[in-house]
Amino acid sequence: MAVVDFQGSLTIRDELGVTATLPFFLEGPDTATLANVRTAIDAIASAADPIIGGQIVEATVTFHPGLPGGIKAVPAAASRVEQTGLFNWSNATTPYKFGIDVPSLANSKISGGKVNLADADVEAFIDIFEAAIGVFTAVTAGYDPLVALLDVALTFRKHRKSLTRSSKEVGAS
């Protein structure tokens, strides 16, 4: 059976209007349908939404599908896309980690300065990448299947240009 590989991403906006992306890679059978792709996107967005403070505003996979119902309509107060959770997975083919950087990680998902792996929403996000997503398997950028979560780091990624554009005040002359 032949396989089909694709890259997708979720675009996340914080309360200041700054956006960042959460990229992912999937692999599935060549018999996969657009409905299968949609199911995978919905599952990933629904698993990511509870662990971020920002708002998912777009999903991208060569085409732009809509988002699932039930996710937040506006970013949470104090959400910042610069505050990220870097989830690192092992794979069966190479010795290298593959990281999925989640922008705008919600403050409620942090405990003691670390991502709270015991949080049910964080566990669900991890599970979505370690199990089949419909007919798809989560893979690395080289399309090697993800095996197990190795570690998670609380990180901060600068988005200064976007922040400057969204927060610039024009003075009266």
Please characterize this protein's 3D structure.
The structure is a single chain. The chain is an alpha+beta fold and 173 residues long. It has helices spanning 34-48, 120-130, 160-167; strands at 3-13, 19-29, 55-60, 83-91, 98-102, 110-111, 114-115, 137-139, 146-156. The strands form three sheets. Strands 3-1-2-8 form a four-stranded antiparallel sheet, with helices on one face.
Q: What's the quick description here?
A:
With 173 residues, the chain is α+β, with helices and mostly antiparallel strands.
Task: State the order of secondary-structure elements, H for helix, E for strand.
Answer: EEHEEEEEHEEH
Low-confidence stretches: none
| Alpha-carbon distance between the two ends | 67 Å
Q: Could you tell me the strand content as a percent range? A: 25-35%
Helical amount:
10-25%
Overall mean pLDDT stands at 88
How many β-strands, per DSSP? 9
* Number of H/I helices: 3
User: Can you tell me the overall shape?
Assistant: globular
Tally of discrete structural domains: 1
Question: Which keywords apply here?
Answer:
173 residues; alpha+beta; 4-stranded antiparallel sheet; 3-stranded antiparallel sheet; 3 helices; 9 strands; 20% helix; 35% strand; globular
Secondary-structure topology with pairs:
Elements: E1 3-13, E2 19-29, H1 34-48, E3 55-60, E4 83-91, E5 98-102, E6 110-111, E7 114-115, H2 120-130, E8 137-139, E9 146-156, H3 160-167
Antiparallel strand pairs: 1-2, 1-3, 2-8, 4-5, 4-9, 6-7
Helix pairs in contact: 1-2
